[in-house]
C-alpha cells in the first residue's frame, strides 16, 4: 500500500511539473494566437504532414558550385597509374563551419568508392575515442558474411555502440594487416587537431603502394596542412558560393518541400533578398530555404523586411555572429512544439548518427507529443520529425530498406546553437560535451553525460539532481552516482551502449517508480530483476543486443508497456515470450520484437488477445508441427492480422510453421512489412492481395520464377529481399537452389510491366542464378545488392533507367568463374558497380 501511494504521489509531482513547464514553453498564459517573425501562426500543420517524406534510398546530391572542382578532386582520388600516385595520399578539405566540407567529402566518397578494394567513413570530432574509431573502420573494411543486414549503409553503426573485444595493439595490428596489400579509401570527417590525425595515421599501414587515399575535413588550415604534408597530398580550401551558385542552392533547397506557391517572379525576388544576407554560406542559405519553405503563405515582400532586420546593408560580410542571428531567427519562427523538439537534440553528442525511432519514442515518453487531428502520438511525432527535416534543422544520413529515414545528423553549428539555447533555458544539462557550457546552478531537469571520466563524475556531485526527469549516458557508468536519480520522477533512462552496468544499477532502476522509457540496449547485462514490476508506468523496454534471454514472470504486470524489444540478429537470439501475456495485463502493447517461442513457451495462448499489436517479430521459432502451441500461434497471427498488425517477421527453424500460413482464411491486409525466413516451400497464395506491403523479405528457398510472377503486381512494394538468414537452415540449401534454378529454366526473367514501386532488390544467398531484366521491368529500381559464393550474372540492367548502384559482396569462397563475372561487371560505367570481398564466418 505504501509503495502504491508513493508511486501515485510521484506521478502527480511529474504531472504538475510537466503542466507548469508546458505553460511556460507553449505560452498558455497568452490566449491570443501568437504570431512569429514571418507572420505565420505558430503550431499549424497539415493533418497528413506525417506522410510528408518520400520513401527513398539514395539521397546524396552534387554540391552546388563544385562541378569543376569535383571533377579535379575525383580524378586525383582515382589516379593510381603513375608511380607517384601509388603512395597513400591525403586530401584535406578545409573551410569555415557551414561552408559544405562534409557535403563535398561525402559526395566525393560516393563517387569514387567503387575504385577501391576497401572503404570506410568515420566522424571523429573533438572528444573522440581512438579505439572506437579504429574498430568502426575495421568493421567497414573487413565485413563478415553475417553483416549483410546493414550493408546498405554508408558506414557502420555509431562508434559509441561498438563493443571492444580486443586490445588496442591487436586492433591496430589487425587493421594494418588487413589494409597492407589493398587499395583503400578512408573518409575521416571533422578533425580538430594535428594530434588526432597523427594518432590515426600511425594506426594505418606504414607502406601501401596501392594508390590508397584518405579524405579528411577540418575547419583549420594548419590542421589540413599537417594532414597533407606528402608530395602528392592535396589541400582543398572550400570557398563561399558566388551569387549565381547561392541562388541555385536556395531554389533547389526550397523546391524540395514542394509546398511553395510563389510565381517564378516572386521566387526570384525572395531568392535575391535571402542570398544577399547569406553571403554565399551554404548552411545559412539552406537554413533560410527551410524557413521560407515552411511558410509558403507568407507574402514575398515580407521576406525583404525580414532580411533587412537581420542584416542592415552596412554589414559587409557574414561573421559567426551573423550565422547565429540567422539560426536565432529560424529558431524563433518555429512553433512551440518544434522548438521543444529542436532543443531536445542537444541530448546527443556532436557528430552522432541519431536513430529516428529512438528520438520519436523518447519525445513521446517525455510527454512532448500527444494525439491530435485524429493522429496517434507516434504519427504526430513523425509529423514533427518531418518538419525538422523540411526546415533543414536535421538532415537524413541513412535510409532503411523500407525507404524511411533510419538515422540523421544535426549540423555542428546548428547543434552548437541548440546546446547553448538549451542550457540558457535550463532545458537540458550537458556534461562532457564538445562545447564548454557553464555548469548549471539550477535544478537539473534533463541530464546528458556525453563522455566518461572522473572529472565528469565529480561534476555531477555538485549539481542539484532532485528534479531530474531524464538521464542519458554515453560510453560508461563508472563515475556516475546512480542512486542520485532515485528521486521518484525520472521518466527516461537511456543507457544504450554503456559499459559498466552492474546489478546494483538494475536494483536502483526498479526504484524509479514513474520510469516510462528504459533502454539497456548494447549493455553487458544478462538478467532483469523481478522487481521490474514496480515500474508500472513503463512504456518502452529495450533489451536488444544484450544477454538477457528472458523476462521475469513479474514483467507480465507491466500494464502500460507499449514496446518490448529484445534478442539479437547476429547471432540470431531471441527473448523468451513473456509469461502470462494477455489483454488484461498488457493491453497497451503495440510492439513485441525479438522474441523466441519454443515448446516450453507459456504465453502463446494470450497473444491473440493483444488486439492493439502492430509489430510481431519472432527471431527464433522452434515448435513441433502438430503441437498445441503450433495451432495457437497460427490462430493468433491470423486474428491479429485482421485487427491491424502492420509488421510480421517469422524466423522458422525447422518447424514448418511458415508453410502453414497458406491455410489462413483471410490475408493480413494491414501488413506493410513481412519477413518469412526458414525452409519456405512456396509463398502464401494471399500474398498478392497485400496492397499496403512496402517491405518483403523471403527465404532464398523461394528464389525462382513463380515467386516473381506472384509478386509483380503488388502496388506498394518498395523493397524485395531474398535472404539466407543467420538462423539454422536446411543443410541441403544448395541443392534446393539448384533445383529452383532448374525449374526456372536456368534463368530468372523479371516480368515486364510489374514492380511499379520497387526501388531496392537484394539477394543474400550461396548461389544467385542468372537474372534478366526485360524492358519496363522494375521501372523505378535504384539499387541492387547481392552477397554470394556463386553468381551467374546480371543481364539487361541497361534497361533499368533509374538504376544507380549495384553492390556485390563476394564471399571469400567464390570460385574463379564467379570472380570473372564480377570483374566483367566492374567494367560497366553506369550504373555504379561496387564490389566487396567478405570474410566467411
From TrEMBL:
The cross-references to SUPFAM superfamilies, in alphabetical order and at most eight, read: L domain-like (SSF52058), P-loop containing nucleoside triphosphate hydrolases (SSF52540)
Span of domain Disease resistance protein winged helix: 347-416
Region Disordered: what ranges?
22-42
**Protein keywords:** Plant defense, Repeat
Q: Does the keyword Repeat apply?
A: yes
Give the compositionally biased regions (Basic residues): 22-35
Q: Which residues belong to any copy of the NB-ARC domain?
A: 68-258
Chain ranges of the Disease resistance R13L4/SHOC-2-like LRR domain: 467-814
* GO BP of this protein: defense response to bacterium; innate immune response-activating signaling pathway; plant-type hypersensitive response
Q: InterPro entries given for it?
A: Apaf_helical (IPR042197), Disease_R_plants (IPR044974), LRR_dom_sf (IPR032675), LRR_R13L4/SHOC2-like (IPR055414), NB-ARC (IPR002182), P-loop_NTPase (IPR027417), WH-like_DNA-bd_sf (IPR036388), WHD_DRP (IPR058922)
Q: Name one GO molecular function term.
A: ADP binding
One Pfam assignment: LRR_14
Which protein is depicted? Answer: Uncharacterized protein
- What organism is this sequence from? Triticum aestivum (Wheat)
Q: Which gene encodes it?
A: LOC123076774
